[in-house]
């Protein structure tokens, strides 16, 4: 899986080698797209060197970019969230270990000829059952934690990436109006960087985020979904 992930990442970034380049803007140099370079090249008639083919290619690149950077990862995150949620509900509703343990104790009681031996066997069975239940409870808590982390990742990913992707669609639909407000919308690009800043806090179980997902009133037993979202 790791090799597939790295291979997909390398393949998806190949267009960037052609699109992005370092351009001299007088007193500074900056890495920009080939279309940004052409837009800033003004001829004697104050017209940019962008042709109709350049605009169409830029729009195709924008569509490809939003799918690779936003929609495909979002679908993967949501799919993982749904699978984890199903697995947790299956774990919460599982009663087979308790029933099988009860049957085991019952059979020991019937087959044992000595009361002392039966008592020892029962105590041993109860000990094994309690350890199994504790192990199952730890596994359930780990799954619940994975669910919370995945949910937070989805929320943060959408909040930080969606505005920038809406700008890309704006550029595709109406390039002329997009150019008029392009500079004013530039600060929204910083939200994309914030995604990488926030993620370590999510993985580290930042205590402040626990307040958001505390549900239910004091003294009331939380429901299953409420329990899943509790920290």
UniProtKB/TrEMBL annotation:
One of its GO terms (biological process) is cellular response to hormone stimulus. The keyword Transmembrane applies. GO terms for cellular component: plasma membrane. It comes from the Eukaryota. SUPFAM superfamilies: Family A G protein-coupled receptor-like (SSF81321). InterPro entries: GPCR_Rhodpsn, GPCR_Rhodpsn_7TM. Residues 1-203 form the G-protein coupled receptors family 1 profile domain. It is found in: Cell membrane. Keywords: Cell membrane, Membrane, Receptor, Transmembrane, Transmembrane helix. The chain crosses the membrane at residues 66-85, 149-172, 184-203. GO terms for molecular function: G protein-coupled receptor activity; peptide binding. It is a multi-pass membrane protein. Its main location: membrane. PANTHER family: G-PROTEIN COUPLED RECEPTOR 150-RELATED, NEUROPEPTIDE RECEPTOR-RELATED G-PROTEIN COUPLED RECEPTOR. This is G-protein coupled receptors family 1 profile domain-containing protein. It comes from Cylicocyclus nassatus.
